[in-house]
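Supplementary notes for students who missed Thursday's class. We covered one full example, reproduced here. Read the sequence, then the structure, then the short commentary at the end.
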Amino acid sequence: MNKFFIEIFNSHSKSIDNQSTGNAIFNEKNLKVSFTKKKFCCHKPSKNNNYFVLSSISSRDRKRIIKKYNFINIENSDSEILLDLYQKFGNKIFKIFGSSFFFFFYDFDKRNALIVRDHIGFNNIYYTKKDDSLFISSSLNDLKKICGKNLKINYRILKKFLNLDAFSTDQTFFKDILKLPPSNKLEYNNKSISISDYPKFNDLKLSDSDSSQIEGLKKMLKKSIIRKEEFEDDKVGFLFSGGIDSTTILSFFSKYDKYNKKLYAYAAKFNHIEDSIKNNIDESEFQAEIFNTLNVKDQSFETEKLSTISNLDFYLDLIGQPFFFPNLFLPHESFKRAKIDGVTKVFNGCDGDTVVSHGFEYFEELFLKLKWLKLYRQIDKLSKNVNLSKRSIFKRTVLGLLFYDKKLFFSSKDKHKQILSTPIHSNSIEVESLLADYYGVKEVYPFYKIDLINYCINVKPDLKINGYPRYILREAIKGIVPEKIRKRTDKANLTHGVIYSFLNKDKNIIERHLNNPHQDLKKVFNVSDLKKGWSKLLDDPKKYSTFSMIPSQIFAYVVVNRWFEKENLK
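Structure (token representation):
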């Protein structure tokens, strides 16, 4: 993670001398910056202007840009390259980046600032104003120190969190600390802040041929996974579940690895779960398809003694605010083991489901456009392959998903774009990246490459679901991913593992919090209903492992209550 801390202040303001982020300091006039790597910095004073730039781009984007725009001095820093592009093309330049990047620009003469966040939100960017100064940081905890005793809780966001509502794109759990949403830019001028987005999706003209689009996706997957910079490390790790997404990444990497890298697969085992429900969570049989055929080091681990709630203080200290990630102990254990193995780069299969899409948006489009006969045929075809009744499929995939963000979408493409724009992606990365960074691990997210996202958005909607969810992906990985995994239509229900932890490791912690709600939490939440839900869960745990919000509500409540206990806030 690229860490930075920026203060833009007026002449009468006091600059903060030391910050925990960064080991390089820049301090001039109305700007003070600390950051981790000097190569990201660029200061360009001249007769006509005086600029400071702090930025970072991926090595693949850097090579592509140098080639496309004919940069002569290829030794220039990322900041020098981006400054040159920004001066020539302005805000249009930001949509060309395919992966992680951030850009901070300051004009000393005009006292204008600009900071831009990438399309998914790989780099955390928070900001706050205090004493006529604007503070911008990659660390929420650093801004909490700046605000000090004046920090106040954002009860509106807190209430939404406890009710399991959608996360905010631009707010934190503190009133005075905000975050820059993905694919947005912040402009600071004359003490005023304006936030605006920049376009990240492109409409592409793809071939009408099914086979061409399938082959195109295969090439796009290979391009997203197999990158020269990923072969620089002798050891490469993979968060591996046995599902289609993680298996696709591992299988592609193994097939096209010309350098015989040592591959480490970190997979969770659930042998402690009782046999009657074990098949709903344990993916050992699918994992074995890879371990028995590919040259991959099996770094599986048992999860019986692991839980997120039992390690809650560590997570809250690291993240700095409440979080919703009941299975955070899974990547945590993987990163911990990766560090022991000397693995510094780990591939993550999140979020292939959303990027490629299961295709259900097409069903909803057919329904809303009154193409019901065509919808019936599509559902009938799916019913035969997934062993579900047509009525059940209709209720779940059409009626149950018809409204998204309280809106109807008559275009499956437009809905796909909207789903990819939700904050759930960046919120997950914000949490997991802190954990990975703690163990010195860099995560790689192939499915979040913008070129792959744009391709999947423009694929014909009837190719996304054609008898099978994510049909086009299943066809594109044919011959690379084992057939048993390629054709699987189920998915592990990790809630079984969460409930096991609740009952066997976290029970006393949960009940202590249920019986002792913090006085400030009572302002926005009535714990009595949740206590009743907890009692019912204790009586019949299996019932609440599927299609129940109670386990999630319990997790969210315990996280918030412990946060209140730790933080002295108002």
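Commentary. The chain is about 40% helix and 15% strand. Residues 12-20 have pLDDT under 50 and may be disordered. If anything here is unclear, bring it to office hours.
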